[in-house]
Amino acid sequence: MVTMVGNEDTIDKLVTNLIYLEHDAIAAYESVIERLDDKQLSAQVATFRDDHLQHLQVLNEMAREIGTDAPTEGDMKQMLTTGKIALADLFGDSAILKAMKTNEDDTVTAYERASRHEDAIPQSKAFFLKALHDEQRHREWFETTAKAL
To answer: Got the DSSP string for the chain?
Structure first.
């Protein structure tokens, strides 16, 4: 799935869509944690989920600061992100991790774009870059770990 998050014309729409994206990501992470047979892998994935929870906390604060309502759950994309995981579960841990890597592709793209958004203040851009670094790290781990299984 190719994300359009990060192409918004206003900062409030960007923050709102990043919040949706984070809710969707957290749901996918929780699905992965439940489904992985290898509990050591589940523990690592849980640390990545915690990064997303922290991102969500910062984004909710941004929404308050700019005076926009923060979504409290994911959107329809959540069915796609968690559905991929459910389907991959039929093929084992490696397939689950590969499915999550594709979800991370979207979050990397979204935060790359967000970090360049013209309406973002320096503090927001710094957060977007930190989140981008987190997402790149997650994606790399999913890719290399899936290949090693």
So the answer is: ----TT--SSHHHHHHHHHHHHHHHHHHHHHHHHH-S-HHHHHHHHHHHHHHHHHHHHHHHHHHHHT-PPPSS--THHHHHHHHHHHHGGG-HHHHHHHHHHHHHHHHHHHHHHTT-TT--HHHHHHHHHHHHHHHHHHHHHHHHHHH-
